[in-house]
Write a structure and sequence with these properties.
- This protein is elongated.
- The chain starts with a helix and ends with a helix.
- It folds into two domains: 72 residues, Arc Repressor Mutant, subunit A, CATH 1.10.10; 40 residues.
- The longest helix is centred in the last third of the chain and has 39 residues.
- The chain has a three-stranded antiparallel β-sheet.
- By secondary structure, it is mainly alpha-helical.
């Protein structure tokens, strides 16, 4: 993957993670920039927010003339929860396979004694 795309994905992931971790999954624009100063700038954030809005991942609203608030949509939260559940299920399956393998390996060793 070209470096520029990788950097853009990392910056988008920073914004998404910030909103996922924020109270009520919402955050002021100013806070995003303050919290992630050095990782992304206002131009990066504008580009990311535009894509997120068009993809219906977030909503943006004006609290007043100077304050914009970003909030994850319910669709995004539902998808994130679904992915988390799939990851948890995969983790349990992997643990079960490891346990079965370990148990079989231990049984085979005991037969050789």
């Amino acid at each position: 993957m070209p470096k520029i795309i990788s950097e853009r994905l990392q910056k988008a992931a920073i914004v998404m993670q910030a909103l996922l971790n924020a109270p009520n999954n919402e955050m002021k624009r100013q806070r995003v920039l303050q919290k992630h100063w050095g990782e992304l700038d206002a131009i990066d954030l504008d580009r990311i927010i535009k894509v997120f809005i068009e993809a219906d991942l977030i909503e943006a609203r004006k609290a007043d003339s100077r304050t914009t608030i970003y909030k994850l949509t319910q669709k995004t939260l539902d998808k994130y929860k679904e992915i988390e559940e799939e990851n948890e299920e995969a983790k349990k399956e992997k643990q079960a396979r490891c346990y079965t393998y370990k148990h079989q390996f231990t049984k085979e060793e005991s037969f050789q004694d």
